[in-house]
Amino acid sequence: MSKIIPTKEWLDLYKEKEEDLLSVSNFNEYFSLKEMFDKPLHKIEIGELPFPTGELLVRDPLVYLQKNETPYLESIPNGNHPLTLLVVELEEDHFRYVATRLKTKDTKAIKHKEALLGNEDLVNFKEGEYFGFNVDAGLATIVDVSTRDAYCNFVENWIVKNPESNIYDNYFADQFKQNAIDNPKYQREAGDWINFKIPNTELYVPMIQTGFGDGVYPVYFGFDENNEICEVVTQFIDLELTFDDEEDE
Fold first, then answer.
1. C-alpha–C-alpha distance, residues 143 and 206, integer Å
2. What is the domain partition of the chain in residue ranges?
3. Of 15, 62, 79, 235, which is most buried by a Cβ count within 10 Å?
4. What pLDDT, on a 0 to 100 scale, did the predictor assign at position 244?
């Protein structure tokens, strides 16, 4: 499905409520500091991923990455962009994935605004709320529409060939385990992320464990001083909301 064309009424509300759509989290700190709230932070660089088009989606790859899923209103430059995973160490050998950041330009973001589709209910939207994307399989991915389509074709063909099987249990689980062997830092034995290369293509579908599991998670476009998109951040854990109270106790 192509992008939604918003109505004039929706666009007027969008401009009116722009401030409410800005992230209160400081993602520049997230990805530059070595710890926050006495919790060590670690980064995993998984390399540059190809985005043949600029039409972007962030979805649960096992449940909600379908061909009829609509990309965000904002686009990114096509090309290869590096993806970074941010991990918080809650205690020794206990890690949770905080966020991902896709850098699309080598500049600093001065604001992060929530990624939207163009049909959200902005009338009843209030400060402190967010729309986000649904996660039911504990995983998230970031892809463009061409990668989405190639991935959906792969999944459809796999299911046809394996009608009695579950694609996670009988295919992806082994890849997660192998990646944990190959890249053991900040992962559980069963694995917490993979960078899945779609067979017979040069396209990749990263799959990352989402913070504390299933739920609804926000996505933000980062804008630089020229008001150009320079990054895309998916937030799984709000560090301030989760850990700030611990320091006050």
1. 8
2. 8-248
3. 235
4. 77
Dihedrals phi, psi of 61, to nearest 5 degrees: -70, -20
- In which residue ranges of the chain is pLDDT below 50? 248-249
Q: What is the pLDDT of residue 248?
A: 46
Distances (CA, A) of 79 to 103, 144, 232: 11, 11, 14
What's phi and psi for 24, nearest 5 deg? -90, -15
Which residues contact residue 106 at a Cβ distance below 8 angstroms, ignoring those fewer than 6 apart?
230
Question: Which DSSP string corresponds to 167-201?
Answer: HIIIIIHHHHHHHHHHS-TT--TT-SEEEEEPTTS
Specify the DSSP class assigned to residue 64. T
Tokens 């040069």 sit on residue: 202
Amino acid symbol at 81: H
Residue 87 buriedness (CB in 10 A; 0-12 / 13-18 / 19+): buried
Buried b (16+ CB within 10 A) or exposed e, 194-203: bbbebeeeeb
25-76 tens-digit pLDDT: 999 999 999 999 999 999 999 999 999 999 999 999 999 999 999 999 999 9
Percent of the chain whose pLDDT exceeds 70: 98
